[in-house]
Amino acid sequence: MDEDQACQGAIAQIYTLSRAVQHIQVPQGKDINDFYLIESLGIVTEWIQNIALKSLLLP
Q1: Fewest beta carbons less than 10 Å away: which of 7, 13, 34, 36?
Q2: Residue 43 and residue 48: Cα distance in Å, rounded?
Q3: pTM here?
């Protein structure tokens, strides 16, 4: 999501659904679609898998 007021509102709404939700910022671009267009499906998939793995390993 873009880092604007609408984004912050959406984050707050999603967070009310589950405390397991984690807000992350893409390494490049303004949102996941920009990141995909800058990089590739493989890079985006690897990035998401790494984030998921790290969240599972946290105490």
Answers
A1: 13
A2: 9
A3: 0.66
